[in-house]
Design brief:
The chain is mainly α. The chain is built from 13 helices and no strands. The chain has helices spanning 11-32, 48-116, 124-133, 143-162, 176-196, 211-224, 235-248, 251-258, 275-301, 307-312, 316-334, 341-364, 369-372. Helix 2 (48-116) crosses helix 6 (211-224).
């Protein structure tokens, strides 16, 4: 692989990371108030419409937001490896990824469990202490850091073994046929992985059913780094796929409705040799690719980007790590409120995002925290 220039983190990519972090917080808030998915604390939706809308939001999120995180992480991995060498690179990854997994798994995760599962005999703090004393490990959303540890180790091994012969994507590859190939590989990979581990199930602390996009996009990010391809996405490439994404969003739900899923008929999308599983596996990249491309293009060319996004960038990783107990706490506080699930979601989402970034900004100021966050 050719030598990559010294790291230069483009502002628009940092803004995307902030937006994705906020979306993660909103995603988990949506699940808490009735959307489909797994979360520490869950309430029934106030209406069928509220559940459908929150589930639609979660499905669209899932098609692209974590995949984009892996794409960006892959994009900066080669530069980090080149500037630090394999030894410092490995130590840095253990500190920035391994330490948060440890702290979240043994302390923040159990705290979130204690908040969401109150005991009738002891208070939250006592329950938390019991969980810590039992060495309860809960990885929560820090599965991302855990997966990145694995991906980083594989990358470092490959760079050490084969070096310059690793895959590099050149500027001429930015064409529609290449995006179509990504869609097909992503969809086929998702279908095959879900035969092994259906979505909603874990293997080795990871929901392998979603890893087709994560593996593919991380690899693309690494291969796109030498030519800085993420900074070359233009309207000619992004806009057509943006329209494809927009038109694809309702198709899965129309298919489900025509199949009788909303009337109680089976519509299994998690895994297996069924048409709904196939439809869902290819629906995700058809939706996700367009959103990712539009994000990369629009955020780069924006003439007046919101200054707050740049100011929040240093705290995005901290907010990502700290948001679960914040989301759960706000959910518990607002639970008695007699309001629709959609209104609770909106209010809780704003409060949770604000509080998570505020807490992260305070934690970052602690001695040594910046080395990790």
């Amino acid at each position: 692989m050719e030598k990559i220039p010294a790291p230069h983190r483009s502002d628009f990519l940092d803004r995307i990371r902030v937006m994705l972090t906020i979306l993660v917080i909103l995603h988990h808030t949506a699940i808490m108030f009735g959307g489909d998915g797994g979360w520490y604390l869950r309430y029934d939706a106030s209406s069928t419409m509220a559940k459908a809308l929150l589930t639609l939001l979660c499905a669209i999120d899932q098609s692209f937001f974590m995949g984009t995180f892996f794409l960006l992480a892959g994009y900066f991995t080669p530069r980090s490896f080149d500037s630090k060498g394999w030894r410092r690179f490995g130590i840095d990854r253990l500190v920035r990824l391994g330490l948060p997994v440890f702290v979240y798994g043994f302390f923040i995760g159990p705290l979130t469990i204690a908040l969401s599962e109150p005991s009738n005999t002891v208070g939250v703090l006592e329950h938390w202490g019991v969980l810590i004393g039992r060495f309860t490990f809960n990885i929560g959303p820090l599965w991302f850091a855990y997966a990145m540890l694995i991906f980083s180790a594989i990358y470092a091994l490959l760079r050490t073994l084969i070096g310059q012969h690793m895959w590099v994507i050149k500027l001429g590859s930015l064409r529609h046929s290449s995006i179509l190939a990504i869609v097909l590989i992503w969809g086929a990979g998702a279908f095959l992985l879900r035969l092994w581990v259906p979505t909603g199930q874990e293997f080795g602390l990871l929901q392998i059913g979603y890893f087709s996009s994560y593996i593919l996009l991380f690899a693309i990010g690494c291969a796109a780094a030498p030519a800085r391809l993420l900074e070359q996405i233009d309207a000619k490439l992004a806009v057509p796929w943006g329209w494809i994404s927009l038109l694809s969003i309702p198709t899965l739900f129309i298919y489900a409705a025509l199949s009788g899923a909303f009337d109680g008929k089976p519509f299994e999308m998690h895994g297996g040799w069924t048409l709904p599983v196939t439809a869902y596996a290819f629906w995700e990249p058809m939706v996700g690719c367009g959103i990712i491309l539009m994000l990369l293009w629009r955020c780069r060319v924006a003439k007046n980007p919101a200054p707050i996004l740049s100011r929040l960038a240093p705290y995005a990783y901290g907010a990502f790590i700290l948001h679960p107990p914040v989301v759960v706490s706000i959910g518990l506080i607002l639970e008695p409120w007699e309001a629709s699930s959609l209104l609770k979601f909106a209010v809780s989402g704003v409060l949770a995002a604000t509080a998570s970034f505020a807490l992260a900004s305070a934690i970052v100021r602690l001695p040594g925290a910046r080395r990790v966050l």
